[in-house]
Every structure is written in C-alpha cells, then in structure tokens.
Design brief:
The chain is an alpha+beta fold. The protein has 2 domains: about 220 residues, Spore Coat Polysaccharide Biosynthesis Protein SpsA, Chain A; about 90 residues, Trefoil (Acidic Fibroblast Growth Factor, subunit A), CATH 2.80.10. The chain is built from 9 helices and 17 strands. The strands form 6 sheets. A 5-stranded antiparallel sheet has the order 9-12-13-14-15, with no helix packed on it. Belongs to the glycosyltransferase 2 family. GalNAc-T subfamily. Pathway: Protein modification; protein glycosylation.
Length: about 325
C-alpha cells in the first residue's frame, strides 16, 4: 500500500471480529466523516459525494448508499435503478430485512433519486459524522464478532449513491465454540433499547438469554442521550411492523394425535412460496412459533400460512384474507 500515502492500515493484536475492528479504526480516524464499507464491496464512480452532501446538510444524518448486488460466483455487477430501492426493517428474531418503500414515505418525494428515510440500516455500508458517532456511543464494545450492531445504531438514530456488495451464501466468520454470538449480541441490544418489547424477541428464543454480560454502561448511555421509548420508535419510525402484542393468540400449532407441529423457517425471501413442514414438537419456539392475528392470519413476521387448495405454503402477508384467512375453533381445537 506504499503507493497510497494517505492510506493507513491498523492491525489488531488478535482476531477481534468486525465490530471491534471498526471501533479500532474509528479511534485512529481524524477526518470529519467515517465511511464504513465491507471488504467485499465495489464502489461506482461518484459514490461518495452524495453521502457527504447529506451529512454536510445535517451532521446527525447517517447515510447508506443504494446497495447493488455483485454475483458471488462470477463477480458480475448488477446495477439497479433508484426507483427499485428498498428500505431496511427487522423482524422479532432481531434479523435485519428489506421492505418496499412505504407509501407514506413515497408521498414525501417528487423523484425516485431523492434519499428516503429508513427504519433500520444495513450494517456493511454507511457514512456518519465522526463526532456524532462518538456521541451516540458508537458500537457496544461488548458485542462479539458480528451481528446486531446495525440495529443498535439504527435504534439510536432517527433517521444517493451506488455501491456493489457481494451477498455471500455462507457466513465467513469463525464463532467462539459454545457461545451463540448472534444471540448474545441481540440480547444485549434488547436489554438496552427495546423496553418491554424485548419480550417478543425472548418468546422466539424460549427466554434462554444466556450470559449476556453487564449492560449498565449502555443503559447509562441511553439515559444520557435522553432517547425516546421503543414504542415511540415503532409508532413514528416503523409503524408498518406487525407487533406480536396485537395478535389474538400465539405459540405452536400442534397435532394432538401425532405430536407433530407446524415447523418452517421464514427468515428470508428464499423461504417464501414453499410448503410448510412438520416436525416433532419441541416447545422451544423458533421455527414452531406462530401468531394468529385479529384478522385471522397465521403468521410469523411478514410470512403467512396460505392455502390455495393443495399445500399450505408460506406467502407474504397481504391483509386481504382469502387464502390467508383461518378460523380457530377452541371447543374442538381445530384450524380451518
């Protein structure tokens, strides 16, 4: 890297993972703006100026580019139009996901190239004012390796360029043996920022919190920043999110004769449009945890059970009843 005199490489003493490596980099930076990019990204011409422009207008703005897809087999760059931009969200497993731009947000803009507000941000590509990042408490330094850091930052900020990103088929990280790092990070996140709504996440993991460490300093940070409640965040920033507390019932869907439960993963778009599975009931929630909405949907987050005459499949919830309308008879304990 000697041909790039302005580039400084900072190395950790041991393998620390993405989160603490980013914190180390921030501690050595002296410019006004920090820009984070995953190592598997490709920047297009003119990618940086739109990010800096928004921060120059308002230093508390945190900006993400349009994230294009780079094929992880061929490295082919798939450019997308700004009109196809999605916004970030999350589900009650505390997994980041993508959503179409809400109609309420579209009405605020006259051109698809204008930046849009997003409830959460993808963690791999963003720019932020360095002093603002520090004031917000940066990342939780007790987070391990990777996972949850983007939601933690999103919950602290109330929030147009193109950068390509390779969406890999598997995780490249080596996790500590015997420790569920993603769960530990997510529990720390929930304990600090989500108030009573944390229990919806805990329902998904059977309230098995494990040892998540001391969060008193992060709670003190939240108090010092005078952050609004998580209910305010849901009402004002992400009102589209289905809240489990609004459900008529929740739990497993069990066949009392066979002891089999409806068991299906629905964590990503790749899980949609597939027949639901059956598995021995285990009372651990997870893929056997379902909610019945007041509108008769059986759902988990944005996926609903849909029956069109053959198999019961997972389908995006549409709110129009039809194939997604279910009736529960408590007397005979049947779903139809």
């Amino acid at each position: 890297m000697s041909q790039y005199p302005r580039v400084k490489i900072v190395r950790t003493q041991k393998r620390e993972g993405l989160i603490r490596a980013r914190l180390l980099g921030a501690s050595h930076a002296n410019a006004d703006v920090l820009t984070y990019l995953d190592s598997h990204c490709e920047c297009t011409e003119g990618w940086l100026e739109p990010l800096l422009d928004r921060i120059a207008r308002n230093r508390t703005t945190v900006v993400c580019p349009v994230i294009d897809v780079i094929n992880d087999d061929t490295f082919e760059y798939h450019w997308q139009r700004a009109s196809g931009t999605s916004v970030g969200g999350f589900d009650w497993n505390l997994q980041f996901n993508w959503h179409a731009i809400p109609e309420r947000e579209r009405k605020l803009h006259s051109h698809p190239s204008e930046p849009v507000a997003t409830p959460t941000m993808a963690g791999g590509l963003f720019a932020i004012d360095r002093r603002w990042f520090e004031k917000l408490g940066s990342y939780d330094p007790a987070f391990d390796i990777w996972g949850g850091e983007n939601l933690e930052l999103s919950f602290k900020i109330v929030p147009c360029s193109h950068v390509g990103h390779i969406f890999r088929k598997r995780s490249p990280y080596k996790w500590r043996s015997g420790v569920n790092v993603l769960r530990r990070n997510s529990v720390r996140l929930a304990e600090v920022w989500m108030d009573e709504y944390k229990n919806y996440f805990y329902d998904r993991i059977n309230h098995e919190l494990g040892d998540y460490g001391d969060v008193s300093s992060r709670r003190a940070l939240r108090q010092r920043l005078q952050c609004k409640s998580f209910k305010w965040y849901l009402d004002n920033v992400f009102p589209e999110l289905f809240v489990p507390g609004e459900a008529a019932a929740f739990g497993e869907i069990r066949n009392l004769q066979t002891k089999l439960c409806v068991d299906s993963q629905c964590d990503s778009v790749n899980d949609m449009y597939k027949p639901v599975g059956l598995y021995t009931c285990h009372n651990l929630g997870g893929n056997q945890y379902w909610l019945m909405s007041k509108d008769g949907e059986i759902r988990r987050d944005e996926a609903c059970l849909d029956y069109a005459g053959t198999n019961v499949t997972l389908y995006p919830c549409h709110g129009s009843r039809g194939n997604q309308f279910w009736i529960y008879n408590p007397k005979v304990m049947t779903l139809t």
